[in-house]
Amino acid sequence: MVSLGLIFGNMNRYRVENPAHWDRHSTFEFFKTFDVPFFNVTANVDVTALKAYCKRHNYSFLLASLYLSQKTLNQIPAFNYRFANNEVRLYQGSRAGCTILLPNESFAFCYFSPLPVMNDFIEEGEKAIENLKKDPNFAPRDGEANMVYYSVLPWVSFTSFQHARRHEKEDSVPRIVFGKYFKQGESIQMPLSIEAHHSFVDGIHVGKYFEILQKEINQLKIE
Description:
Elements: E1 14-16, H1 25-31, E2 38-46, H2 48-57, H3 61-73, E3 81-84, E4 87-91, E5 95-101, E6 107-112, H4 118-134, E7 147-153, E8 175-179, E9 182-184, E10 187-197, H5 203-218
Parallel strand pairs: 5-7, 7-8
Antiparallel strand pairs: 1-4, 2-10, 3-4, 5-6, 8-10, 9-10
């Protein structure tokens, strides 16, 4: 685990791994030559507590989900590895870039930096979305390695997901999609797809992501 206190304000900092001393070097070399080195896992997350928390505090469910997802990812170093400029970097933390639906049913990208308090993240996120809608600009930040790409598909409770992509050697950015939540018995479930580069991320890391994210949701207090 990574101390969250080290992340905020330091996301552009990174350590370059020395292949001779990196215990994952062989795995990296094996998967980096694959035509499709990404793997995707889709599972449901119990968002019952999160829905209640957002209703109580009048929070955006999307922004609250982004906050908790980024908080979770930044506790798992595997998700902050990137291949950039022909070197392996371990970033201090990552930002979120998320698709936002526009009034004309097209979309644009909005960007969010992690903050230690959910309320502050949501306030800043609402401002960013409002500004984007006032001046829509389709401007993907492909050059920023320490990014996580998010999409939202609130119309479909999907069971799998496949991203559009260009086959670029250095593309190692994780991708996460939130789907349409639905009732299941007494709970509310949300499908979540997570896609990651196998040179850096294995099934155990994806498992930790779902486990920690669920714990973060369950710990929310309805005051």
